Amino acid sequence: MAKILPPEQALEDALDILRSGEPVAIPTETVYGLAADATNGEAVARIFEVKGRPRFNPLIVHVADMEMAHRIAVFDEISLTLAQKFWPGPLTLVLPLREGHGVHGLVSAGLETVALRMPRGFASQLIQRLGRPLAAPSANSSGKISGTTAQAVNADLGGKIKLVVDGGPADVGVESTIAKVTPEGVRILRPGSVTAGDLEALTGLAVLRGGTKGIEAPGMMLSHYAPDARVRLDATELREGEALLAFGPSRIAGAGTALAMLNLSEHGSLREAAANLYSHLQALDRSGASVIAVEPLPQEGLGEAINDRLRRAAAPRGNESGSQQ
């Protein structure tokens, strides 16, 4: 298994591994990422190899500052406003690649755009010290539940990588919002904790959902973030032999017969629900249930991101077409 080190002890080891062309699992404010030098083709290929990720699925590029971001991508006025407001933080912007950007072609999967994010904390410090951007999708086997703790990452990928940096449980718990500014408005390609309301309030533009031409950014595959058990959404009653992913203080009919039950938030907090989503799915998946029934969750605000991940977890497996949500 991989070595697990706290951030204050991990920086030099992480830099050595990254410089050798290997990936490192690192904490971010959203979920844990599997990071490698975005300018090194062999290092990027190792990300795909470790995750078992299809190479038509692009990666997010993480930068340390706006100077690095401008070297990689061309910012329009609205995208720059969004970056100034939400960076560093859980917003990814899809932007045209700048000539001479230096990012390896595997990262963008042949697209003429790049998904850029500026993280906080250890990830930012690591990029600054490396002096190069990091490609960093979620640290999990492709299509499976994202890791929100170092222990979850190590259980999944620890046999394939050398180091997991343990920054504690991820603060947000779901992947970043991915947005793209278009002539029609701001298009959300993947919802996250920066909500449609946040984007509309800042820009005054219409907020649209989904892409227009298949996979335009990470996280758009229809089947994604999935446990081994089948996921049944918006359950109004529990069926025999099912585990239950609950939300709020009230239970659906038959909840007392659940093979196992965990509550995303007993008080109905969407922020708490997002932080618990992946760890609770992983725990219920280990219960032996073949089906995880999910109680209904609100659709507004952060609920949009939570329901997006649950729909992808419940989608038929092996579907590689882009989302048109």
UniProtKB/TrEMBL annotation:
<keyword id="KW-0819">tRNA processing</keyword>
<keyword id="KW-0963">Cytoplasm</keyword>
<dbReference type="InterPro" id="IPR050156">
    <property type="entry name" value="TC-AMP_synthase_SUA5"/>
</dbReference>
<keyword id="KW-0067">ATP-binding</keyword>
<dbReference type="Pfam" id="PF03481">
    <property type="entry name" value="Sua5_C"/>
</dbReference>
<keyword id="KW-0548">Nucleotidyltransferase</keyword>
<keyword id="KW-0808">Transferase</keyword>
<comment type="similarity">
    <text>Belongs to the SUA5 family.</text>
</comment>
<dbReference type="Pfam" id="PF01300">
    <property type="entry name" value="Sua5_yciO_yrdC"/>
</dbReference>
<keyword id="KW-0547">Nucleotide-binding</keyword>
<dbReference type="InterPro" id="IPR017945">
    <property type="entry name" value="DHBP_synth_RibB-like_a/b_dom"/>
</dbReference>
<dbReference type="InterPro" id="IPR006070">
    <property type="entry name" value="Sua5-like_dom"/>
</dbReference>
<dbReference type="InterPro" id="IPR038385">
    <property type="entry name" value="Sua5/YwlC_C"/>
</dbReference>
<dbReference type="InterPro" id="IPR010923">
    <property type="entry name" value="T(6)A37_SUA5"/>
</dbReference>
<feature type="domain" description="YrdC-like">
    <location>
        <begin position="8"/>
        <end position="194"/>
    </location>
</feature>
<comment type="function">
    <text>Required for the formation of a threonylcarbamoyl group on adenosine at position 37 (t(6)A37) in tRNAs that read codons beginning with adenine.</text>
</comment>
<protein>
    <recommendedName>
        <fullName>Threonylcarbamoyl-AMP synthase</fullName>
        <ecNumber>2.7.7.87</ecNumber>
    </recommendedName>
</protein>
<dbReference type="InterPro" id="IPR005145">
    <property type="entry name" value="Sua5_C"/>
</dbReference>
